[in-house]
Amino acid sequence: MKNRLVDYFISLVKIDSESKNELAMAERMRDDLMKMGAQVIFDDAHARTKGNIGNLIARFPGKVEKKPLLFCAHLDTVKPGKGIKPVIKNGKIFSDGTTILGTDDKSGIAEIVEAIRRLQEEHFDYAPIEVLLTISEEIGLLGAKNLDYSLLNAKVGYALDSHRIGSATIQAPSLNVIEIKVIGKEAHSGACPERGINAIELAAEAISKLKLGRIDKETTANIGKINGGVANNIIPNIVSLSGEVRSHSEEKLEKVTNEIIRTFEETAQKYQINLDGKVYKAKVDIKVDRDFPAMKIDSNEQIVQIALKAAKNINIEPKVEISGGGSDANIFYSKGIKVPILGTGMRDVHTLDENISIEDLENGTRWIMEIIKEYSKM
Ligand SMILES: [Zn+2]
Fold this sequence. Notes:
The chain is α+β, with helices and mostly antiparallel strands. The protein has 2 domains: 4-172 and 294-377, Zn peptidases (Aminopeptidase, 3-Layer(aba) Sandwich); 174-292, Alpha-Beta Plaits (2-Layer Sandwich). Helix content is 32%, strand content 29%. The protein is built from 10 helices and 21 strands. The strands form 5 sheets. Strands 1, 2, 3, 6, 7, 8, 18, 19 and 20 form a 9-stranded mixed beta sheet that branches. Strand 15 and strand 16 (278-281) form a beta hairpin. The two termini are 37 Å apart. Bound molecules: zinc ion.
């Protein structure tokens, strides 16, 4: 049986597009979207992200007077994503087991494109639509962070980049990455231990005082990496650690981050020695990077309600969700663009078992069509 949607999805996953190498995929999408009547432009984000093509922005003129509706997805995939050979088994599409499938996020792209194609074939009078396909989402939301926002006119829309069809993610936490360097003083551990300041000991004491893991319903903290020491007979003078704090509340994010900084600084003050009339003090260098800001869209917002109503219209159970991770949508939110993240049917993403059912591809497409119809009729 010939199925345009399935054939299209399969043709897209066969195009290699690991992060920073999205050129072939971007050119394919430019050609396809232009054939459908869109104006397509690229920004120059790749000049800053060191990729081989920028973000793609496509504009479909509307057939009714309305503000444009945005649909976003990302062009890149995680590794191993080269030479993907899709296989259909029992109504589901898998890779051959040696690579990921790339349904994250090509299911989103295929569903957006097929939905618009079908609406055009139905001669439906839709609102103006903008399609934004970003680069290098998987390696730190680089495309979204470096996007030329002057090229976007839409202020609301959807990112197709989640799992279950019918679910709309409307909240996601902010994330701080914390890098800590503890500096002690080196000395021979057998001959003159009193001349050293043990950075490992200091780090261990500070960590033992931290509250890690789940802090509360909205907040988590983790020390994820630690590195230090040279040899058993040397008192170590440097330990590097890194960790993160996530929270749905900016206030709590700041509070927990500051707590970690304060604990290291206070612990370091206890570590000092007096040598030959000179005082040696331990030091801590701490760097905090805001990786992404929180997203908090109210479930009563029209853009959320449209997605839920559209799901109901096609007999799919609607659901709002809160995520523990960040995505392009966090960055858009900080720029004043509200995009709930919708499920596309992708499963077991970022693994060799990644898959999607043909039924979900179809339902995802129908959901997007219904959303555009609801929005356009409003
Ligand atoms: Zn994704």
